[in-house]
Write a structure and sequence with these properties.
Helices cover about 30% and strands about 30% of the residues. With about 220 residues, it is an alpha/beta fold. Bound molecules: S-adenosylmethionine (SAM). InterPro entries: MnmC-like_methylTransf, SAM-dependent_MTases_sf, tRNA_MNMC2.
């Protein structure tokens, strides 16, 4: 897999199977902070519990962790990843996040590991397809929906997955994603989210879904 530099100076990889990079060219760190961290309000939450679809290079995880460490709150992070990258590859992706990088270096020594604990909190990784996985109900304060795009990977964005994510998200919790695709937004609404179009950075629109009402099923 080819290593590429994004415009904010942070690295990403290009996945030849999906024909897409793991992060937008505008910036891996930029997207993790401005979209996933901030649009879900993870950076303000006193006890954040993040559910992520697509752990990838762990950029979103490290950004959430850096924020939690800076604020002195514990982070609980549950990721679903069907194609974990080898530790040698992950070790090449360093980020300007000193506190989180120290934790990530220790994590890599045990990688691939399904449970990693520390005084900072806990990371659990479910090494399977999100379509097959069972998720804890009403657990998450935020969902980071970050598989490859609906065009390249439509199954990860379908109604069954979105209903599952909704059931695992607490009422009032937020799901964020970079996709603004119409079919995806309609399915998100059907799954029990109030759908907001938000201005993107380096992209016209992102999507935020707020968990309202009862989850379906
Ligand atoms: C765009 S990358 C994620 C980048 C990552 N969030 C980060 O912070 O570096 C997409 C990831 O989703 C994973 N993925 C794609 N489809 C999936 C599925 N159906 N179930 C679980 N993981 C999936 C891919 O293996 C890949 O690692």
């Amino acid at each position: 897999m080819e290593l590429r530099l994004t415009q904010d100076g942070t690295p990403t990889l290009f996945h030849p199977g999906y024909g897409e990079a793991y992060h937008p060219r505008q910036g891996a760190l930029l997207q993790a902070r401005r979209l996933y961290l901030e649009k879900t309000l993870t950076h303000l939450h006193p006890a954040p519990r993040v559910l992520e679809v697509g752990f990838g290079l762990g950029v979103n995880f490290r950004v959430a962790l850096e924020s939690a460490l800076q604020r002195g709150v514990r982070l609980f992070y549950l990721a679903v990843e069907k194609e974990p990258l080898p530790k040698e590859v992950l070790a090449q992706i360093s980020l300007p996040l000193p506190r989180a990088e120290a934790v990530f270096a220790a994590l890599l020594r045990a990688w691939p590991t399904s449970r990693f604990l520390g005084p900072w909190g806990e990371l659990r990784v479910l090494f399977t397809d999100v379509r097959e996985v069972g998720l804890p109900p009403g657990w998450a304060t935020a969902v980071y929906l970050d598989p490859f795009s609906p065009k390249a990977n439509p199954e990860a964005w379908g109604l069954p997955v979105l209903c599952k994510l909704r059931r695992s998200l607490k009422r009032g919790g937020r799901l964020a994603t970079y996709s603004a695709q119409g079919a995806f937004r309609r399915a998100l609404k059907e799954a029990g989210f109030r759908v907001h179009r938000v201005p993107g950075v380096g992209k016209r629109e992102w999507t935020v879904g707020i968990a309202v009402g009862a989850p379906p099923g």
